[in-house]
Design goal:
This protein is 89% helix and 0% strand. The chain is mainly α.
Length: 343
Amino acid sequence: MKAMLSNYWLLVGLIGLLATSGLAQTNAQVGKVRTELERTDEVIERANDAVRSSNTPMAAPPLQKAIKLQKDAWVGFRGQNYTLAYRLTMEARDLAKKAIVRSRLTEQGETVVLRKLERAAELLERAKEAMPPGPDGRLQTIYESAKNNLNRAWEFYRIQQYRAALKLANQVINAGQDILNAANRQIRRYAEFERRSEAVAELIAKTREKIAECGSDDALRLVEQARKMYQLSQEPASEGKYAAALRNLQQARKMAMEASKMCNGVGALSRRHERIKNEADRLAEKISPDNGAAKRLLNQVYEQLQLAEDFINRQQTEAAAAALKAAHLTLNQLKKHLTINDR
């Protein structure tokens, strides 16, 4: 009998202990769920502030869903459905965090897009200033299209359509860079044309001087054609058509070179020698017997002509050309002397 009573009280004690342990576990579970619910409330409050301050439409849906789930979680908690309450509040917290992230990303995106738009506007203004003058319709079309895209990009930015604004801003930047590259190419082509134009003009001038000395009518006609072709090169250059301008300039150079060659050979030197000698003979008839200075100049001309003739006969064209040039200069001195004496 005593043994049975002992076992009974042992069983009662064990049941009481288990009940106390279960109650302790339930209280701990309740406390943990309540703590998580309160933490979620704090996260939702932060998310609400972030969404409101950033005015971000894309962040609002997860926040609204988080608020609804959190309400359901509190309902479950009050109904002692702690497992459901815990699951719902954790889902709500994740959604609230997502709303915060979206708000931050949008703020960062807004800054990035704003900087890109400002850069696009600056680049397009530089492109406008750098656009070369002349009827280049292609560049003008690119510029007008880019300008319209920039205006549309600002409109998208103002209504917070940042992805569309960024896409258009990038297009504007690419267009502006294309215009600047084209302008730089035009500048290089202009500099190249100016350099070649100056060289051809100098060549034509020197060729005319040489032809005047050698007296070749064919060379004179050819150098005149070169001069006209040179003038034709200036018009397309003024319109930015440098390819055509350079072709004309090249043709003018070729003509001037061919004209110059006509006065470089032995035949040209012989014709030049003959022309200078004939002119010297005509002047000799005008010199009075008492004009010693004129006679000395005339003798120098004949001596230089004789020297040139010897060089021509020996095919020494450079030396012959130098002697003929000296004869021509002395002949000019003689002309000047006779003109002064005739006054």
